[in-house]
Amino acid sequence: MKLEEFDYNLPEELIAQVPIAKRDESRLMVIHRDNKRVEHKTFKDIIDYLNPGDCLVRNNTKVIPARLYGKKDTGANVEFVLLKQIEGDIWESIVRPGNKLKPGSVVYFGDGILKATVLDIMEDGTRKVQFEYEGIFNEILDKIGLMPLPPYIHESLKEKDRYQTVYARYDGSAAAPTAGLHFTPELLKKIEEKGIKIANVTLHVGIGTFRPVKEENIEEHKMHTEHFYIKQEDVDKINETKKTGGRVIAVGTTSCRVLETIASEETGLVEATEGDTGIYIYPGYKFKCIDGLITNFHLPKSTLLMLVSALAGREFVLEAYNEAVKEKYRFFSFGDAMFIQ
């Protein structure tokens, strides 16, 4: 398939720059795969489309303040975005300006409370970096780091927690699993009271999620790997749902990718496990585990748009996107939501 087959026209003013005042009052486009029907709702109406016996699977990763501004020992300004913890205090990081940071370069952040030494240049141009500090690394990040908002957001974020789901628990992401940003504690309580199970996976989202596809033949694109794990109690909820005929509904493409990585080809059942996934889902893929997906509206020509197209059909998805543009939905991370059922 060709990259241009996943393009659509998006006016820049529809890219949401700030989160909506109330999380669950964003808009919701419900798309029905069986009869190619589209409905326009408000996100809190999602409860009307969930049935007792269904299971929502959400990603409880927590975004770390991964953007750091520092100075080289020469006094030059540099920017780091932490991508992934490799081991201990060694991280993979995007650095700017990259050509100035060779192996051996030293950078100081926050008046010297954090020191970084570049160890190596990775294949894709990112850096392997060793940090030195006194105290607790995440507390230092909280003090001097900024939320790593996507490159298409130009407004500063007034409240850090708005780029965090209300159920975020485990530190490690360089980007939020944005489909989950629409949920409130009250809405989640109502969903559980209706008899819908809620299970968690943890996938630490890398900035690779924003990396553009450059290959004209989409099958040649290489995915960035991301670390995930899923616990036994969550596996039990998902498998019970599969066995009793309920639907497994992924909250976001990150939850979907974990489930599809670990599901059995034959049964769609999952096991408690930990690992890295570079799963790449595009049209032609046969889903093993998920029956529905809650997601935001994605960038043209992106791997996330390809994943959604694999689930609901490329032509139908692009028709729905064009309708969303016409109806002035808000797009991308702080934008509105879609439920594919």
Structural notes for this entry:
Strands 2-1-17-16-14-3-12-13-15 form a 9-stranded mixed beta sheet. By secondary structure, the chain is an alpha/beta fold. β5 and β6 (77-87) form a beta hairpin. The chain has 2 domains: 3-63 and 159-340, 3-Layer(aba) Sandwich (QueA-like), CATH 3.40.1780.10; 67-144, Thrombin, subunit H. α5 (303-312) packs across α6 (314-326). The longest helix has 13 residues, at 314-326. It has 6 helices and 17 strands. The protein is globular and about 65 Å long.
User: Approximately what portion of the residues adopt beta-strand conformation?
Assistant: 25-35%
- Put simply, the count of helices is 6
**CATH architecture label name of the largest domain:** 3-Layer(aba) Sandwich
Query: What integer is the average pLDDT?
Result: 95
CATH topology tier name of the largest domain: QueA-like
- Number of DSSP E strands: 17
Main β-sheet description:
9 strands, mixed
Helical content (DSSP H or I, runs of 4+): 10-25%
Defining key terms:
341 residues; alpha/beta; QueA-like; Thrombin, subunit H; 2 domains; nine-stranded mixed beta sheet; six-stranded antiparallel barrel; 17 strands; 18% helix; globular
